[in-house]
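Hi,

Apologies if this is the wrong queue. I'm a grad student, and the batch job for PH domain-containing protein from Paludibaculum fermentans produced an output file that my downstream script rejects. I'm not sure whether the problem is my script or the file. Here is the sequence I used:
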Amino acid sequence: MLPFLAPLFSWLDSTRTELTLEGGVVRYRHGLMNQTTRALDLKKLQDVRVERSLTQRLWGVGTLVLETANESGRITVNDIDDAQRVADRIMTACRTEGNTTQNV
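Support response: The file is valid. Your script probably expects a header line. Output copied below for reference.
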């Protein structure tokens, strides 16, 4: 029975993803069982990119890539809804560097 539960746990783990803009920081939390949290300072953000394969375009999702100059300064968020809107909100926050919390 254990082999059948592994895909279920993997799917549950992938469903818990959160991207937040808060006080000039983009924070990415991923995972339910094993949780990972990454943070990027908006002042150091150099590239905001949206990548969409044909399949992603058909499903209305995309991959959001955020990069800084650091070697480990890359966050990749796969298969998010309306990725271009999220990228635009992050770019707007970079320009204004507002201190309000926004869920994207």
